[in-house]
Design a protein that fits this description.
Helix content is 12%, strand content 59%. The chain is mainly β and 192 residues long. The strands form two sheets. The protein has an eight-stranded antiparallel barrel. It has a two-stranded antiparallel ribbon with strand order 6-7.
Length: 192
Protein backbone atom coordinates (compact mmCIF):
# COMPACT_ATOMS: atom_id res chain seq x y z
CA UNK A 1 0.00 0.00 0.00
CA UNK A 2 2.77 2.45 0.97
CA UNK A 3 4.78 1.66 -2.17
CA UNK A 4 1.77 2.10 -4.46
CA UNK A 5 0.88 5.45 -2.85
CA UNK A 6 4.45 6.77 -3.15
CA UNK A 7 4.64 5.56 -6.77
CA UNK A 8 1.35 7.28 -7.59
CA UNK A 9 2.54 10.58 -6.07
CA UNK A 10 5.87 10.30 -7.96
CA UNK A 11 4.07 9.68 -11.25
CA UNK A 12 1.73 12.61 -10.61
CA UNK A 13 4.71 14.88 -9.99
CA UNK A 14 6.52 13.70 -13.11
CA UNK A 15 3.61 14.16 -15.52
CA UNK A 16 2.30 17.35 -13.94
CA UNK A 17 5.70 19.03 -14.08
CA UNK A 18 5.70 18.94 -17.87
CA UNK A 19 2.27 20.66 -18.06
CA UNK A 20 2.57 23.13 -15.20
CA UNK A 21 3.38 26.82 -15.49
CA UNK A 22 6.05 26.49 -12.79
CA UNK A 23 7.63 23.62 -10.94
CA UNK A 24 9.74 23.67 -7.77
CA UNK A 25 10.88 21.04 -5.29
CA UNK A 26 12.13 21.53 -1.79
CA UNK A 27 12.68 20.20 1.68
CA UNK A 28 10.87 21.20 4.83
CA UNK A 29 10.70 20.53 8.52
CA UNK A 30 9.40 21.86 11.77
CA UNK A 31 7.56 21.28 15.00
CA UNK A 32 4.23 19.50 15.35
CA UNK A 33 1.97 20.26 18.28
CA UNK A 34 -0.22 17.15 18.55
CA UNK A 35 -3.18 15.79 20.44
CA UNK A 36 -5.31 12.66 20.23
CA UNK A 37 -8.84 13.31 21.39
CA UNK A 38 -10.94 10.81 23.30
CA UNK A 39 -11.65 10.10 26.95
CA UNK A 40 -8.65 7.72 27.00
CA UNK A 41 -6.19 10.59 26.42
CA UNK A 42 -5.25 13.73 28.31
CA UNK A 43 -6.74 16.95 26.95
CA UNK A 44 -3.37 18.52 26.23
CA UNK A 45 -1.07 19.05 23.29
CA UNK A 46 2.38 17.44 23.12
CA UNK A 47 5.33 18.22 20.87
CA UNK A 48 6.74 16.22 17.99
CA UNK A 49 8.41 16.98 14.67
CA UNK A 50 7.97 16.54 10.95
CA UNK A 51 10.51 16.48 8.09
CA UNK A 52 10.17 15.76 4.40
CA UNK A 53 9.94 17.11 0.91
CA UNK A 54 7.48 18.87 -1.35
CA UNK A 55 6.89 19.83 -4.96
CA UNK A 56 4.90 22.83 -6.11
CA UNK A 57 3.14 22.65 -9.47
CA UNK A 58 1.85 25.99 -10.69
CA UNK A 59 -1.55 25.65 -12.36
CA UNK A 60 -2.07 29.38 -12.91
CA UNK A 61 -0.91 32.63 -11.36
CA UNK A 62 -3.31 32.13 -8.42
CA UNK A 63 -3.42 28.33 -7.94
CA UNK A 64 -0.82 25.61 -7.37
CA UNK A 65 -0.86 22.00 -6.21
CA UNK A 66 1.70 21.09 -3.55
CA UNK A 67 2.06 17.34 -2.90
CA UNK A 68 4.29 16.48 0.05
CA UNK A 69 5.82 13.45 1.72
CA UNK A 70 6.47 13.94 5.45
CA UNK A 71 7.80 11.77 8.23
CA UNK A 72 6.16 12.88 11.46
CA UNK A 73 6.36 11.75 15.04
CA UNK A 74 3.49 12.13 17.48
CA UNK A 75 3.57 11.46 21.20
CA UNK A 76 0.65 11.66 23.58
CA UNK A 77 -0.18 10.93 27.20
CA UNK A 78 -3.03 8.70 28.28
CA UNK A 79 -5.56 9.76 30.89
CA UNK A 80 -6.13 8.01 34.20
CA UNK A 81 -9.29 6.44 32.65
CA UNK A 82 -7.29 4.58 29.98
CA UNK A 83 -6.59 1.45 32.05
CA UNK A 84 -10.20 1.18 33.25
CA UNK A 85 -11.61 1.52 29.72
CA UNK A 86 -9.24 -0.90 27.99
CA UNK A 87 -7.99 -3.26 30.76
CA UNK A 88 -4.33 -2.36 30.23
CA UNK A 89 -1.83 -1.57 32.91
CA UNK A 90 -1.59 2.22 32.92
CA UNK A 91 0.63 3.37 30.06
CA UNK A 92 1.68 7.01 30.32
CA UNK A 93 3.30 7.96 27.04
CA UNK A 94 2.56 6.64 23.54
CA UNK A 95 4.76 7.38 20.50
CA UNK A 96 3.53 7.04 16.92
CA UNK A 97 5.47 7.58 13.67
CA UNK A 98 3.62 8.37 10.44
CA UNK A 99 4.47 8.74 6.78
CA UNK A 100 2.06 11.53 5.80
CA UNK A 101 1.14 12.49 2.27
CA UNK A 102 -0.72 15.82 2.07
CA UNK A 103 -2.01 17.02 -1.30
CA UNK A 104 -2.31 20.76 -0.75
CA UNK A 105 -4.06 23.32 -2.94
CA UNK A 106 -2.32 26.71 -2.69
CA UNK A 107 -4.28 29.87 -3.41
CA UNK A 108 -1.77 32.71 -3.91
CA UNK A 109 -3.26 35.78 -2.28
CA UNK A 110 -0.12 37.73 -3.26
CA UNK A 111 3.48 37.02 -4.26
CA UNK A 112 4.27 36.55 -0.56
CA UNK A 113 1.22 34.78 0.89
CA UNK A 114 -0.65 31.59 -0.01
CA UNK A 115 -3.68 30.03 1.65
CA UNK A 116 -3.49 26.22 1.84
CA UNK A 117 -6.18 23.54 2.05
CA UNK A 118 -6.31 19.85 1.24
CA UNK A 119 -6.49 16.22 2.31
CA UNK A 120 -3.75 14.29 4.05
CA UNK A 121 -3.33 10.54 4.26
CA UNK A 122 -1.08 9.15 6.97
CA UNK A 123 0.35 5.64 7.11
CA UNK A 124 1.35 4.44 10.57
CA UNK A 125 4.87 3.05 10.21
CA UNK A 126 5.71 2.55 13.88
CA UNK A 127 3.89 2.57 17.21
CA UNK A 128 4.76 1.97 20.81
CA UNK A 129 4.84 -1.83 21.16
CA UNK A 130 3.76 -1.64 24.83
CA UNK A 131 0.22 -0.90 23.70
CA UNK A 132 -1.01 -4.23 22.34
CA UNK A 133 -4.10 -6.28 23.06
CA UNK A 134 -4.12 -10.02 22.32
CA UNK A 135 -1.23 -9.51 19.90
CA UNK A 136 -3.12 -6.84 17.94
CA UNK A 137 -2.00 -3.27 17.51
CA UNK A 138 -4.01 -0.55 19.23
CA UNK A 139 -3.90 2.05 16.43
CA UNK A 140 -5.24 1.65 12.90
CA UNK A 141 -2.66 1.70 10.12
CA UNK A 142 -4.12 4.72 8.31
CA UNK A 143 -5.28 8.21 9.21
CA UNK A 144 -7.26 10.44 6.85
CA UNK A 145 -7.22 14.16 7.69
CA UNK A 146 -7.95 17.62 6.28
CA UNK A 147 -5.63 20.58 6.65
CA UNK A 148 -5.75 24.33 6.29
CA UNK A 149 -3.11 26.97 6.77
CA UNK A 150 -0.92 29.80 5.52
CA UNK A 151 2.44 29.84 3.76
CA UNK A 152 4.76 32.84 3.42
CA UNK A 153 7.15 32.87 0.45
CA UNK A 154 10.40 34.71 1.13
CA UNK A 155 12.84 34.26 -1.79
CA UNK A 156 13.60 30.50 -1.75
CA UNK A 157 12.27 30.03 1.78
CA UNK A 158 8.79 28.97 2.86
CA UNK A 159 7.46 29.64 6.36
CA UNK A 160 4.20 27.89 7.13
CA UNK A 161 1.61 27.18 9.76
CA UNK A 162 -1.26 24.76 9.36
CA UNK A 163 -3.92 22.96 11.33
CA UNK A 164 -4.54 19.27 10.58
CA UNK A 165 -7.65 17.48 11.88
CA UNK A 166 -8.12 13.73 11.65
CA UNK A 167 -11.46 12.55 10.27
CA UNK A 168 -11.40 8.84 11.09
CA UNK A 169 -11.28 6.87 14.34
CA UNK A 170 -7.75 5.61 15.09
CA UNK A 171 -8.91 3.14 17.77
CA UNK A 172 -8.18 -0.40 16.60
CA UNK A 173 -9.07 -2.02 19.94
CA UNK A 174 -12.83 -1.68 19.97
CA UNK A 175 -15.71 0.77 19.96
CA UNK A 176 -15.40 2.02 23.56
CA UNK A 177 -13.86 5.36 22.58
CA UNK A 178 -13.21 7.46 19.45
CA UNK A 179 -9.57 8.48 18.97
CA UNK A 180 -8.98 11.33 16.53
CA UNK A 181 -5.79 13.22 15.81
CA UNK A 182 -5.24 16.96 15.77
CA UNK A 183 -2.02 18.74 14.89
CA UNK A 184 -0.65 22.24 14.50
CA UNK A 185 2.39 22.27 12.23
CA UNK A 186 4.86 25.16 12.18
CA UNK A 187 7.92 24.99 9.99
CA UNK A 188 10.32 26.22 7.35
CA UNK A 189 11.01 24.94 3.85
CA UNK A 190 13.55 25.80 1.19
CA UNK A 191 13.28 25.42 -2.59
CA UNK A 192 16.13 23.42 -4.12
Amino acid sequence: MKTKLISLVSLLLFFSASYSQSFTVGIKGGVSINKITGKSFKEQFTYGYHVGGYATLGLSKKFAIQPEVLFSQLSTDTSSQFSSIYQFNHINNIKLSYLSIPIVLNYNVSNLLALQVGPQFGVLINQDKNLLQNGGEAFKKGDFAMLGGLQLKLLKFRVYGRYVIGLNNLDNIGNKDDWKSQSIQLGVGINL
